[in-house]
Amino acid sequence: MEKSSVKIDILPNQFLKENGSFNQEEAIKLCGKIAGVCYDKEGFNHIVNEPVEKTMKRVNMTLNNGHHSVYDHITLNLNLQNVPKILAMVLNNEHQYTTSEKSARYTPVVRQEGSIITFEEERLYNKWIDIFKIKIKEKYGNVYNDVKIQKLAQENARYLVTVFMPTTLIYSTSLRQINYIASWMEEYIRNHNQNDYFETKLASYMNEFINQLSDRNVLVEGLMKNEKERKLSIFGKNLDNKKEYFGTVYSTNYMGSFAEFAQAHRHRTLDYQMELNQEKQYFIPPIIEDDRILVDEWLSDMQIVKGINPQGELVKINEVGKYEDFILKCKERLCTAAQLEIMMQTRETLLKYQKALKDQNSPLAQDIEKYSHGARCTFPNFNCLSNCNFKEGKDLSRKI
Fold first, then answer.
1. Which CATH entry fits the domain spanning 239-394: 3.10.310.40, 3.40.50.10490, 3.30.1360.170, 3.30.360.10?
2. Which of 85, 130, 284, 318 has its Cα between 20 and 30 A from that of 257?
3. Dihedrals φ, ψ of 388, to 5°?
4. What is the fold of 7-101+166-223?
5. Residue ranges of the domains in the chain?
6. 117, pLDDT greater than 70
7. Per-residue pLDDT, 342
8. What are the residues whose beta carbons fall under 8 Å from the beta carbon of 306, sequence distance 6 or more?
9. How many Å separate Cα 375 from the centre of its chain?
């Protein structure tokens, strides 16, 4: 495998040492003092100047008895660099976080020396950018200018690039959560299928990630025990066997690309799992679906990169949540500005949800009908602040 590339820097905060490492000792002491608030009659101000021995006794007690919530008071803001897209997805599927990630829509994929991106990926990416630009201009040149067309072409061409492509993001979470995640990664590393390319490569990057956290003094032994034997939430098993249900809560199954999943699970009020398919299938961008020659060429090019898990590879997805949170998803994703694939899937789920509620004579059937007439700008309780004036966008028939 290529040399280690994952890098983590801690952004400035009260616990950042001059050498760039985390001042774990002082952070732990603060948490030990906070742990005393629940039973100290005079509150935190009385605890601040208590003897360090008393504080550390409380630290040892909380670390060893599993009462780790006080360690959520410490937030780390991490600058993650050269992190594979799939590893960012692993992190983003855990709900306790804030992230700001470089967008593949706005930044072109460029192969650099030592990069994991192969020559073939770069060649196919640039080839299809040119094809998409022509197709988009032919169909929507009266709607989009050249800058917008370039962005949309990049968004679609990246389906041919590996889900291990490096990305950059600012990732903020608590001291407890980052240690929990590291412990779940250790479980994945121990139990992954060593004969599977995807799992082996991901495990190696997880190992790099954990080493980076260790080098920066972020890992706390007491928070890494994983007594409940929890696992990373992103990976499901036998998702085909999960029954669909639609009511005040719902569970639905569908196929979507890695790229779509990366968009979908950013809705942290909903729960998502994915599972790779044994038989490879790929998303076909609708802008070319009426051209049989281009479709065949697209699938042929996907075969060239199939061994490195391109972002257009379809995976099984299970989505679970509450009715009102699904409607919130519709208010974000049923829009011209949303990625087309997730817009289409959200619409499909909405119509499936609507039919199920109607068949059940559910009181919610009347409510969901209000959201079934087009994009979010048609919703009775949504005020659009930026009118796209795009008919195919508003009626959800757009192809790009």
1. 3.30.1360.170
2. 130
3. -80, -20
4. Gyrase A; domain 2 (3.30.1360)
5. 7-101+166-223, 239-394
6. yes
7. 97
8. 280, 313
9. 24
